[in-house]
Design goal:
The complex is a heterodimer of chains A (294) and B (160). Chain A is α+β, with helices and mostly antiparallel strands and 294 residues long. Chain A is built from twelve helices and 14 strands. Chain A is globular, with a radius of gyration of 20 Å. The termini of chain A are far apart. In chain A, 51% of the residues are buried. Chain B has 160 residues and is an alpha+beta fold. Chain B has a five-stranded mixed beta sheet, sandwiched between helices. The radius of gyration of chain B is 16 Å and the shape is elongated. The chains are: A alpha+beta (294), B alpha+beta (160).
Chain lengths: 294, 160
């Protein structure tokens, strides 16, 4: 048998799940889609003594429209996110990103929240959660808490989740009407982990870029929000010059690693090329909205 | 909380009850406990697609699924598609189009394609290739597999 021995808990409720996590004394894992956890268990890179299967907990498989946000429950599979009408209508940039996520069979099982918890620096979900100012909802035997995604994602494969906690949902902020968007990714084969990807949101008021948001992945230990570049574009006209300057600033700020797949120079070049394309695309998609009179 | 349990599931229309270790993979359960060796194991970490089965009607990697998770589930494997002399339509299309050579990856392809034909628009070769991209074949170069799927997609009824 591939995985090491563990005790298995089929959680009936969130309360049941977090009680089982707490009882394991820090040596437990939550099993949702299992598309990242099970390979690591098969390699025995991860050997939990208790595995808490949340797949039978009711009502976690829904995407719901809340005030200004879409809430994705802990069992929302990639296939559902990719095909969901609320996502397509309210967050088209996420709808576009989903076409790059893994392969058909993996999308049937893998979950949005699971991927955020796995925190792979080359996966789309942590990056999209950062882009969309996401909030992570967490339960434990001590109660519930909500945490901004930028605080939740602490490093490569690392999060702020405590051993007795599980993520119950992620909220994504719905961009304002008319917000321009773009998603650009490059991978060796479609559906593989990306060498680099960028997502952009941009509003357009009085001919100027407003509320610019840029997230990238594949170019650092974690997915990133590029707040310096965002700030530099704020209030600028959407000209080739402005975007070229932003890309130069972006490339100067990156320190990607070299690895088997790509050298640092190549990754920096790729990040710049994808970002340049995405900025222009988002600007073109943004619909002009005039400032409300003060 | 157990490291062992008794599970009951339906495999290719037959109800099966077995005691299993919690850590037993569904792929090994099908092959070793039920003797259904048509489901192949290649990489055993979710990359190659050879172990693909249908779990409650949707394709899943059986090497990334625990047998204990399938308690109460409906499983379909390649053995459920047809038999020698009475091939299922996906199998027949593979035979007609030479969609296999060594055959190792074939059960996984057949199950993925069964899911594709039930649930996915397959109007262009690009869509077919994208949907097949999670299954690896080292022999065919994929062209004959795409040919088989194209014919099946054109002949199928409405999506479910």
């Amino acid at each position: 048998m591939k995985p090491a021995r563990f005790d298995y808990v089929r959680a009936e409720s969130i309360a049941h799940a977090v009680q089982a996590l707490a009882g394991a004394g820090g040596d437990s894992k939550v099993l949702a889609g299992g598309q990242s956890l099970m390979p690591m268990m098969n390699f025995r890179l991860v050997k939990p003594s208790v595995l808490v299967d949340i797949n039978r907990i009711p009502d976690l498989d829904r995407i719901t429209l809340e005030a200004g946000t879409l809430r994705l429950g802990a069992l929302v599979r990639h296939r559902v996110t990719a095909q969901d009408a609320l996502v397509a209508r309210h967050i088209p940039v996420l709808h576009a990103a989903m076409t790059h996520v893994a392969h058909l069979t993996v999308r049937n099982r893998g979950t949005f929240c699971g991927s955020v918890c796995h925190a792979d620096p080359a996966a789309e979900m942590p990056m999209m959660t950062l882009l969309l100012d996401g909030t992570v909802h967490i339960a434990s035997p001590r109660g519930t808490r909500a945490m901004p995604a930028r605080d939740f994602l602490t490093g490569s494969l690392a999060t702020a989740l405590e051993p007795d906690e599980m993520v119950t949902a992620v909220d994504l902020a719905i961009p304002a009407d008319g917000t321009g968007w773009a998603f650009e990714e490059f991978s060796r084969r479609h559906g593989d982990y990306a060498l680099a990807a960028v997502a952009v949101l941009m509003e357009r008021r009085d001919g100027r870029a407003r509320n610019v948001r840029i997230a990238m992945m594949g170019i650092a230990d974690t997915a990133l929000r590029l707040s310096d570049v965002e700030a530099a574009l704020e209030g600028r006209e959407g000209t080739a010059e402005a975007f070229d300057e932003a890309v130069a600033r972006l490339k100067a700020s990156l320190a990607p690693n070299s690895d088997l797949n790509a050298s640092a120079d190549y990754r920096r070049h790729l990040a710049g090329a994808l970002a340049r394309r995405a900025l222009a695309e988002a600007w073109d998609r943004a619909r002009e909205a005039h400032m409300e009179p003060a | 909380m157990e490291d062992r349990a008794t599970i009951t599931l339906t495999v290719n229309g037959l109800t099966q009850t077995r005691a299993v270790d919690a850590r037993l993979l569904l792929s090994d359960f099908l092959r070793h406990d039920l003797g259904l060796t048509g489901t192949h194991v290649g990489c055993e970490h979710g990359v190659c697609g050879a172990c693909t089965i249908l779990l409650d009607g949707r394709s899943a990697r059986s090497c990334l699924t625990l047998a204990i998770q399938a308690d109460g589930a409906t499983i379909e494997t390649v053995e459920g598609l047809g038999r020698m002399g009475d091939l299922g339509r996906v199998q027949q299309a593979f035979r007609d189009h030479h969609g296999l050579q060594c055959g190792f990856c074939t059960p996984g392809f057949l199950m993925t394609i069964t899911d594709m034909l039930r649930h996915h628009p397959l109007e262009t070769d690009d869509q077919i290739r994208e949907a097949l991209s999670g299954n690896i074949c080292r022999c065919t170069g994929y062209q004959h597999i795409v040919d088989a799927v194209r014919e099946l997609a054109r002949a199928r009824g409405p999506l479910t």
